[in-house]
Amino acid sequence: MTVIYHVIYHKGDSWNNRYSKGKNILKRSLSQRVYDTLLERILRNEWAPGDMINRREVAAELEVSVAPALEAMLQLEAEGLLETIPRKGTRIRVITEEDLRGQVILRQALEGQAARLYCGEPIIQNEARLLELAAAVDSSAVNSWDNWEKEILFHRSLVELADCKVLVREFNKVMRLSLFFAANKLSSLSFNNQYDHIINRHTELVKKLQVSDADVAERAMRDHLYSGLLNL
Question: How does DSSP assign 40-94, residue by residue?
């Protein structure tokens, strides 16, 4: 899952730049290490939704103080992977069907706006590379990690064409949560079955995004993401 972890880690995110000197740099480094470790375990489905996570146990296992462990867990909670239950503690988030639908709406808003910025000439200039990436997605097995790696690489390549660092950063955040959903096999929910026959049309999407009309390009991306609900 090399590509996946390259995409989801916080390289360049503003949270990583919160500290600047001395002890704060060390603190950030420790909390980032805890964050990366916990994130990887969550995405590898080592914990089930609802499993409790104790910050003191995490700190002891990773040989850090409680402070960086707590900071890492708060960041994961802010991103929607953990949740705090009053008088009980922190647990792996329990995801609902509504959460899954909400994730589609987030991606539609973010990637739809990106499409408005890169449609037309940028797509045409990068057509060969994008078609290669799209074909790789379309030929991979749906709901496999291989498919997810190719899916993320394709969509991130599109977002990067918008030449907007904020959009790329927010895309990474959204995809971290999307991967969490995938890791917990929520794609097996019955309401997704109706989309089986229309997913994986990335090659077709590249062609549609070559138009110079921003409204048309945004609609193409929104429709693509909605039809690909199974592949959040």
Answer: HHHHTT-S-TT-EE-HHHHHHHHT--HHHHHHHHHHHHHTTSEEEETTTEEEEPP
Where does a domain end: 32, 67, 92? 92
- Could you tell me the two tokens for 203? 């090659």
CATH number, residue 67 = 1.10.10.10
Residue 182 has pLDDT above 80, yes or no: no
Considering its fold, how many domains does the chain have in total?
A: 2
213 lies in the same domain as 122: yes
Tell me which of 57 and 48 has the higher pLDDT: 57
Closest CA to 149 of 159, 158, 140: 140
Range of the domain at 45: 2-92
The rounded distance, in Å, linking the Cα atoms of 194 and 191 is 7
Instruction: List phi, psi (to 5°) of 85.
Output: -105, 120
Task: Report the distance separating Cα 230 and Cα 186, nearest Å.
Answer: 9
**What pTM was computed for the model?**
0.72
Contact 50, 94 (CB under 8 A): yes
- Span 62-84, average pLDDT: 93
Could you write out the three-class secondary structure of 110-128? Answer: HHHHHHHHHCCHHHHHCHH
> Residue 31 pLDDT > 60, yes or no?
yes
Token pair in block for residue 136: 């790789």
Span 165-170, average pLDDT? 94
